[in-house]
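Researcher: Checking consistency across runs. Here is 3-oxoacyl-ACP synthase again:
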Amino acid sequence: MKVGNLYLAGIGTYVPRTVPVQEAARQGWIDSTAAKESGITAVAVEAELPAVDMAVNAATKAVERSGHRPEDFAALLHSGAYYQGPDGWSAPHYVLHRTLNQPVVATEIRHGCLSVLTALRLAAGLLGTTPGSEAVLITAADNFSTPLVDRWRDSDHAIYADSAAALVASTRSGFARLLAVGSRSESSLESMHRGVEPLLPPARHPDRPMYVAPRLEAWSQRPGAGPLDLITAVQRFGDLVAETAEQTLAEAGVGWESITRVAHIGFNEDPLHAMILDPLGASAEVGTWEFIRTIGHASVSDLVLGLEHLWETGQVTEGDHVLLVGATEGMEAGCAVVQITAPPAAQG
């Protein structure tokens, strides 16, 4: 989707202390071989703050840096890949009350690790149809510090990090301009993350923990499955990533030669190359691997953390283009192209 007049006016993040992966291996939380093969050096772990409070922290920074007043906002769009609190309770309104505290819509975006990109698409529509409003607050957070999630072993593709991120999408101005955003899906692969789980009754918290790797294993061993199914699925998803990037770049009117850096999802090293970097023809140096490997997979916050890191450390500057690349179950790939329009000092 080509975007006209939409900027990123404010950005804020929250990353707690990190636990070295070598220490996790010494403690027996992760197999030492798996720890080494992951390429991850440390993982962010927050033992005290709930996800929504981390989101409030990041959002407060983003709103302050944006220069917008609370009454400028049309909505708050919040996301998380894991549970934020009790069933039947609204995490978005918790964040809204402690940030903007305005009588605007607050809703949850349930699109896995593509939630922030989807929120940007929705923000463009909201701001185009809400007279008098100039901004939308986008928040994202997850805290996996629960006995129902094994952050170290749950997935063969990633180690889960606790974090939060926030963006202020604005029609006024900002440190970056959103040129295009979109996603493409391959729904024939949805069963990969379903495995053999029953759909009725659905598995719900706290009935069973979140196990990703066993579901993928069950999928690969389903009746009629072939030994090359997983390899074929990974290749198909890689093609999907490349197709999505090409489409988004075309909509943005930007060629690959104009992309300075790529901010991507925080997979472990081998899956990151197989599913994201290699299909794009991008090196780890062009991506945000050296940063992401010190945090882990920050779920819904990965892309914002990567963009902020590139911008605040001066690795991208005015006029540079950054490609944001994410993925989620389904399977679906998403991309966005942003152009940096101001140095970090412009936000204080």
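Researcher: Does this match what you'd expect to see?
Model: One thing to look at in this run: The first strand starts at residue 7 and ends at 14.
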